[in-house]
Amino acid sequence: MSRLTEVIKEYRGLGIEVQIDYEKFYLYSVITHSTAVEGSTVTEMENRLLFDEGISPNKPIEQQLMNLDLKRAYEEAIGCADQHIDYSVKLLCHLAGLVMRNTGKEYKTAAGNFSSADGELRKLNVTAGRGGKSYLSYQKVPQRLEDFCNWLNAQRKSICTEDIDDVYELSFLAHYNLVSIHPWADGNGRMARLVMNMIQAEFGTVPSIVKKDCRDEYIKSLAESQDTGEAKYFLEFMICHHVQNLEKMISEYKDTVYNDTLNLGNDTINMKNDTLNLTEKEKRIYEMIKKDTTISIAQLVADSGFSRPTVTRAIRTLKEKKLIDRAGAKKNGSWLINP
C-alpha cells in the first residue's frame, strides 16, 4: 500500500470529508489557492464572504473577478464530472471561457482575432516565462487538444476506479499534458488544475490543492518535466504535495477533536465510538442500501439527490466502518449488510 493510499484511508476513517459544508468550503480553498498561484491576494476567508455574502474585500477588482469566474467554472465542471460527460475541445473551451469571462481580452493577430474571454484557442505562439522556451505552435493546438481529449476519455473508461494511486496519477498526468499543450492565451494553469480536480471528483477522491506556499516548487517541477520530457518529476511533486496537505489536515483535525474532548471534563466521549457515528448523508445511503441490497450507485445518486462523489465517499466510509460490504461483480453484485 502506497503512502498516498494510507493517508487517504486515515483521512476518510476520521470522517473529515463528510463534515458539514465540507464540499463547499473545500471548493473555496481549491479556488483560493489556484488563483493565488496566478497572483491573486484574496484570502480564503475573503472568498467565503465574497461568494456567500457578496461582501467585496479590499482587493483589486480584477482579482475578485478572477475568483468569481473560477468558482462558476468549478461549479459547472463538477456537474460535468458527476454526469461522467466525455471531454471534448468544445467542453474545454467552454470551461476556459468561464475561467476568463471577466478578465480575458480580445487579441488581434496576423492569423485572426480571438477572445480569451470566450475560451477561444490561441492564434499566436507563446513562450514560457522561465527561459523563453516556446510552447506548441498555435497551428497544431486544435489537433493536439483533440488528441488529448481522446486520450483522457480512453483512460477514464479503462482505469481501475478502486485504485486510488491510478486515479491520482491520471489526474496529475492530465494536468501536465494539458498545461504543456498550452491551448489558450490566458488561464492555462487554472484550466489544468480544474481538469485535474474534475477527474478526482468524478472518481470520488479527495481533491488535491496546489498550495500557494509551494508555488515555486510546483512551477519548478513542471519546468523540469517539460525540459526533460519526463512527466515523473511533476507527478512526484504532486503526489508528495497532496500527501503533505492531507497529513496536515489530519493532524489539525486530531488536535481539534482532542482539545474538544479535554474540555468536556466528566462528559468525555469515547472517541472511537464517536467516529463511528454517521452523518445524515451516510445514514441516508446506508438506509437505502439496507432497503435494497441490489441498488446501484447510479440509482443511489438518482434517488438520494446527492452528487456521485458524495455517494461514493459515503459508501467508502460505510465500508471502512464495516457496516457494509460488496459481493459479486460491479454490475451483478449485491451489498452485504454487516450485523
Task: Spell out the blueprint of helices and strands.
Blueprint: H1 3-13, H2 22-37, H3 44-53, H4 61-82, H5 89-99, E1 106-109, E2 112-115, H6 141-158, H7 164-181, H8 188-202, H9 215-228, H10 232-262, H11 271-275, H12 280-291, H13 297-304, H14 308-320, E3 324-327, E4 334-337
Antiparallel strand pairs: 1-2, 3-4
Helix pairs in contact: 1-10, 2-4, 4-5, 4-8, 6-7, 7-8, 7-10, 9-10, 12-14
Short description:
The protein is mostly helical and 339 residues long. Helix content is 60%, strand content 5%.
Structure, explained:
With 339 residues, the chain is mostly helical. It folds into two domains: 3-247, Fic-like fold, CATH 1.10.3290.10; 278-337, Arc Repressor Mutant, subunit A. The chain has helices at 3-13, 22-37, 44-53, 61-82, 89-99, 141-158, 164-181, 188-202, 215-228, 232-262, 271-275, 280-291, 297-304, 308-320, and strands spanning 106-109, 112-115, 324-327, 334-337. A two-stranded antiparallel ribbon has the order 1-2. It has a two-stranded antiparallel ribbon with strand order 3-4. Helix 1 (3-13) runs parallel beside helix 10. Mean pLDDT is 89; it is low at 264-275.
